[in-house]
Specification:
Shape: elongated
Number of helices: 6
Helix content: 10-25%
Strand order of the largest sheet: 7-11-8-12-15
Radius of gyration: 25 Å
Structural class: alpha+beta
Distance between the termini: 52 Å
Strand content: 25-35%
Order of helices and strands: HEEEEHHEEEEEHEEHEHEEE
Largest sheet: 5 strands, mixed
Length: about 325
């Protein structure tokens, strides 16, 4: 006998789906927080003019010098994201709705990982997407002032723009020790699990004979400080890494002020993961410095790996 569908039955089913969704949501830890900072939003878009200023101390002679925090017009506009699952009335009547539990669990996992999906591709596309200073996020022409106040440029990239960001195995150095991060994850409205199950209030339920379960929220992501990230499309080798590392630690801000940036992590996609592990996790490397198979202590042609542990190897499938 088909189950009689009552508001109480639908409420119980929604509660079950909601439990499965939230349990999966809480069971996943996204990675984006290592490269991005959460910034709350209270309007359609947020302006980040202050990104152009990294405060520095000066001798107090005469009046205070006020540092403007609105020198740039960089803005991140919130976007609405959603997904909806329809459950046929017959599946509820026939007590088959339990078959959907894995789908709602996967939906919860997808929502938990959505910040990764938003933030990490910004690194891959950083050679074309612009940041607050009007240059691509990864650029050799970021404007800075030298010690004499003259305009010059600084670089946070090597290898040039990838021909196809979706497939080029770029790698990225990140300094995650700062309060600021290179990426902004802007949060306007958190994702919420809701349902449309009333024939009286929903034409879709009436016309399609489906009960709808949805998740939606308002968020977006953009660029913060280019100084805290270095992108390279050059081969991941010991010399190329060391050149990138030195470029970050010697980076200076306006008026020649050392920024004290030290990369703590290297982020790679799946295709470069084992190469990065060879370079930064093994005790020995081939004499030519190129990564290879697991190096054995005392093996002929091997040298101690002085770069072991210098940066932490991190991998995400959202990088090519």
């Amino acid at each position: 006998m088909p189950q009689i569908i009552t508001p109480q039955v639908l409420a119980a089913i929604f509660q079950g789906f909601s439990f499965v969704f939230n349990d999966a949501l809480k069971g996943v830890t996204p990675l984006y927080a290592d490269i991005a900072m959460d910034v709350p939003s209270s309007t359609t878009a947020e302006n980040y003019g202050w990104l152009g200023q990294m405060p520095r101390m000066r001798e107090w002679v005469g009046d205070r010098v006020v540092q403007s925090l609105n020198a740039y017009g960089y803005q991140i506009v919130n976007k609405t994201f959603e997904t909806t699952i329809g459950v046929k009335r017959e599946q509820i009547e026939d007590d088959q709705y339990g078959l959907f539990n894995p789908i709602f669990a996967e939906l919860g996992r997808s929502v938990a990982l959505f910040p990764d999906e938003l933030c990490f591709p910004l690194l891959s596309n950083g050679w074309t997407n612009l940041c607050y200073d009007g240059q691509p996020f990864f650029s050799s022409a970021h404007p800075v002032l030298d010690a004499n106040g003259n305009l010059t440029t600084a670089s946070n990239q090597s290898g040039g723009a990838p021909a196809t960001p979706a497939t080029t195995p770029a790698w990225f150095l990140i300094d995650k020790s700062r309060a600021l991060k290179p990426i902004i994850h802007q949060k306007r409205r958190p994702f919420e699990f809701v349902s449309k199950t009333s024939e009286q209030s929903s034409d879709l339920v009436y016309q399609r004979n489906e009960f709808l379960y949805s998740v939606d929220g308002r968020v977006n992501a953009g660029y913060a400080l280019w100084q805290l990230a270095y992108g390279s499309t050059a081969a991941l080798t010991r010399p190329n890494f060391r050149a990138a590392y030195e470029a970050m630690i010697t980076l200076r801000g306006d008026y020649g002020r050392p920024l004290g940036i030290v990369p703590t992590e290297i982020w790679v996609g799946p295709s470069s993961h084992m190469i990065a592990r060879d370079l930064f996790e093994t005790d020995f490397l081939p004499v030519d410095g190129a990564p290879g198979e697991a190096a054995l202590s005392g093996a002929v042609g091997m040298i101690a790996n002085a770069d072991k542990g210098l940066v932490k190897v991190r991998m995400t499938p959202w990088l090519p």
